[in-house]
Amino acid sequence: MAAESFAVASAFDRAISELEQLESRPYCHRIATALLVKNCQQLFDVDTASEVDSTSSRDLVDAYAISLAICDLERGRIPIPYQCKSFQETSLAKLSPRKGHGLHVSSEEVNQCIQAFAADNKMWETWHNYRHRTEVYCQVAGADREKDSTVQFYKHIASIMAEFFDSVDKNQDRLSEFHKRHLNDAHTAYEKLFSNIEDIQDAISTLRSHISQSNAAAEVLIWSKLDDSELTL
């Protein structure tokens, strides 16, 4: 029992230490970890499992280990397998870590991406390293919150995550505004281009009309000259 309590305390200490350092990590890592913790908390609120051994919790751990691995791999400019596109930052950014959504991918998608990682040593090692850490996060999120040994921890982690969620929300707002601004810029550019195309088409039409008129005038002039020549003869 003492050894078990020590192991739990050590896991909590590691989790707190890593969560406290998340603010300095890139947005990709922050959103993935925030979603993992929130979804694991919700999972264990309704699940009687006390360990990460159910299919749902295992998929959560595997999926967000994939996302965190992809965060590292993309920073290293390593191409991501097409089977893993649903785990990338662009997909995670559409989700709200404060509310939690449940896992946004299926077990089949999780397994297909892991199989794709298995074909590359770098990808597999990166995922495997994150897999243990995400398991610790999920175990911590699902621990018995009423036990004296965990009450203080949850007060601490709740404070950390509240600030963390605020930070992620602000990042999402900035990303949304960035995308909206660039979409508006693209729309304006398209309208300008379309207007320019219409102007060019009008100019071409006018030029064709002038050419047609010039050809007609030239033809009349030529026939007139020919008629004059015949009369002279």
TL;DR of this structure?
With 233 residues, the protein is an all-alpha fold. The chain has helices at 2-21, 27-46, 55-75, 89-92, 107-118, 121-141, 148-232.
Helix fraction bin: over 70%
**Structural class of the helices, strands and pairings?**
mainly alpha
Mean pLDDT across the residues is 72
Rg, nearest Å: 32 Å
- Which word captures the global form? elongated
Unreliable runs, pLDDT <50, ≥5 residues?
A: 47-52
What is the count of β-strands? 0
β-strand amount? under 5%
Measure the end-to-end span: 129 Å
Main pleated sheet? none
Total domains, how many?
Answer: 1
Tally of alpha and pi helices: 7
The arrangement of helices and strands along the chain is: HHHHHHH
Task: Name some characteristics of this structure.
7 helices; elongated; single chain; 233 residues; mainly alpha
Describe this structure in words.
The protein has seven helices and no strands. By secondary structure, the chain is mostly helical. The chain has one domain (1-164). α1 (2-21) crosses α6 (121-141), α2 crosses α7 (148-232) and α3 packs across α6 (121-141). The chain is elongated.
Please specify the SSE layout and strand pairing.
Elements: H1 2-21, H2 27-46, H3 55-75, H4 89-92, H5 107-118, H6 121-141, H7 148-232
GO cellular component, one term: nuclear membrane
Keywords: Endoplasmic reticulum, Glycoprotein, Karyogamy, Membrane, Nucleus, Signal, Transmembrane, Transmembrane helix
Function: Required for nuclear membrane fusion during karyogamy.
